[in-house]
Design brief:
Blueprint (H helix, E strand, L loop, with lengths): L1 H22 L31 H28 L4 H28 L6 H23 L6 H24 L1 H31 L5 H8 L4 H5 L16 H22 L31 H41 L1 H5 L5 H6 L1 H7 L8 H81 L4 H4 L5 H13 L1 H21 L15 H15 L2 E9 L10 E6 L5 E6 L3 E6 H6 L9 E4 L4 E6 L6 E6 L4 E5 L4 E6 L6 E6 L6 E6 L3 E6 L7 E4 L4 E6 L6 E6 L4 E5 L8 E3 L6 E6 L4 E6 L3 E6 L4 E7 L10 E3 L3 E5 L4 E6 L5 E6 L16 E6 L5 E6 L3 E8 L1
Antiparallel strand pairs: 1-28, 2-3, 3-4, 4-5, 6-7, 7-8, 8-9, 10-11, 11-12, 12-13, 14-15, 15-16, 16-17, 18-19, 19-20, 20-21, 22-23, 23-24, 24-25, 26-27, 27-28
EC number: 1.10.3.11
Main location: membrane
Protein name: Ubiquinol oxidase
Amino acid sequence: MAAAILSSSSSSLCRVQATVLKENEEKKVVVEESFKPKTSTHEPEASPQPSAPTELETWVIKLEQSVNVFLTDSVIKILDTLYHDRDYARFYVLETIARVPYFAFMSVLHMYESFGWWRRADYLKVHFAESWNEMHHLLIMEELGGNSWWFDRFLAQHIAIFYYIMTVLMYALSPRMAYHFSECVESHAFETYDKFIKARGEDLKKMPASEVAVKYYTGGDLYLFDEFQTSRAPNSRRPKIENLYDVFLNIRDDEAEHCKTMKACQTHGNLRSPHSYPEDALEDDTGCELPQADCEGVVDCLKKSAAYLTTVSKEKNQVELLRCDDFKIVEEIERHKYGRRELTGGTSPHREFRGNNLQNATTNGGTGLSVKELDGLLILLAEKKRKMEQEEAETNMRVLLDFLYCLRKQKLDELNEIETDLQYIKEDINAVERQRIELCRAKDRCSLKLSMFADDLNSQFVTQSGPNASKKKWVHEQFNCLQECYLQKRRNWVRKAFKEEERDTDIMNREGYNPGLEDFQSVLTNFTRYSRLRVVAELRHGDLFHSANIVSSIEFDRDDELFATAGVSRRIKIFEFSSVMNEPEDVYCPLVEMSTRSKLSCLSWNKYAKNHIASSDYEGIVTVWDVATRQSIMEYEEHEKRAWSVDFSQTEPSMLVSGSDDCKVKIWCTKQEASVLNIDMKANICSVKYNPGSSFHVAVGSADHHVHYYDLRNISQPLYVFNGHRKAVSYVKFLSSHELASASTDSTLRLWDVKENLALRTFRGHTNEKNFVGLTVTSEYIACGSETNEVLVYHKAISKPAAWHRFSTDLENGEDDAGSYFISAVCWKSDSLTMLTANSQGTIKVLVLAA
């Protein structure tokens, strides 16, 4: 009888499973209304049909729906009033609210599990996957600036707290009502995104995709992405993310999937995880599972718990009887197996182990078993053992097969990429060989003409093996970085050609080069041309034994004739660059020296008024000086804490920007005393810089690990926020109007494209964990200091240093302090190979890139 009941129950579960798999074949995402009658032409006739709801249940359902619709409409009216024309802020609030019910569902289910009332893993898996999906929606909205205003964060977070408490109580009393309310919220989210996409679709297609969205929708492991889509088979939806339109389109489709899941949950026990069943579960009865403990609300749980307690005592007696029968069977088997040993005085090892417990179980009387019956039992046990071993082997083989399939797919992808790269290399080798043959022919013609004038001239062109060997060695040392650069440029050009629907022949230049190869050749030429930094001059900034010698900032003037230094010595010193280069002295007297009230952090020359220079200090004062008169022109004292950075605009000479520890960025005009604009941020400001091609765009390096890029015509939120650094961003500098470099105390530099909102490259090789070590750029090179007392130079296309120089330390000052010195300031001479560097010891060196 028990076997019949178990068989019936298992087949029923198998039929439910088949129904779910049929429904998962549906590809199109559709948002459906709740409580429609559910029919399936694929369900077997024998499957039990759910009983029709009673009149009372129907009335309760209508009441629950009415309350949910009223609550949802009330919240929607509030959001429509507050966020009529602020889409990203509205989406931020919606996504903050949308995550809450899944937290509430899991909290209640975990409580049920603790009491033993609930054992359905599918619900917990799916709800966690839904919360994971909504969390990434929220991260996308934060990246787009939806949380930039404090009121939006305040409103969303307080609504979420109230919503969580309400959902926990509602879910404990009526899961059906809670799921329907969540469906109403998700349905509103779907409609909101759908209207936004239809209204702003063309604009969104022109905007780059969110970095969070690209990683989430196209990342490596998409198990959780498939998990919340209960109406689909796993791996059936793989989004394509190319622009912001695709991002919002997929967010909308996610909300539709949430609606369908919430609808399925309103029928008790109807939710199934997409990963719960293998693909061949319909053909193999082993896929059927025993019913799992669950309940519908806290009242139902209490009833079932009480009913369970009343049956435990009865089942306990039956279990004891079955256990006693098992002991008897084992006893008979052992008696047959070890009978001969007992006759000779030996004892069964198993009998010795079990001792009196087994004897007590069999002394109440029992029937003996014949040898034939015992042989049958032994055969039965052997068959059972063999079946278990086969099942275990089959499971192990399935796991191994899944691993091999996954490994094959990964290696095939790698192979396809390698084959494509090899094709690029083959094409480029042919192009370079053709160009090389043409150069050799031209060289031969030139050598023939030269031989007609003088044989001595040939000797000047013969010994080129030294430089060539040096360059080859340098290339091999940096081979991995150069390989990465080549493949990146080559792939980018091919990608660009496909987007523009051009043929390969259309992207070749007149020499037969692919533009990507031509770019890489330029990088390789510049990178191998210089491999070291040579010292051409050196001077002492102050007293060698004085502790206040750190040079915080060093800057060239407009014409590169003068340079200024400033630091903890509370003095701005102006030197003439030509005197430093031409006079063989160690200590130079500055042309101009101006004293300040506080330690200085940064300097910036005006790019139009040659004699004007701005400074920022530790008291938060921003000062504009006239070097000719040695007097301050303007003093701005609005910052409440230390000002770390100041910068003059290159296109609007009267404008300058400053950043401070008071979390404010201020825009100043030399024609007025008060600040023009004020940007409040969440974290300390370490660096600010105007875009050299615009007086409206400012980059801000912050202690929140991000680079914020603002359009000053709309300061309500950043134009872009560049993420990637793991610690405070200490410097930002522009290589061009669209390339921005940033330095951080995570010991990395990063290069960004502010036009396309892209991360281009990460540079590693220096050490920077706690100090400001300086950052300076040209159109091709990036230089920075290191806490190892070294200056390092990077080519912007290569992630490892191209050249470096280590400052020597004075042994007179004690070897114990030698390791504490660091580079504190660096500055390139405008688009040249010459650079000024200073360290914490007060030593200033003029370095030049050399072969």
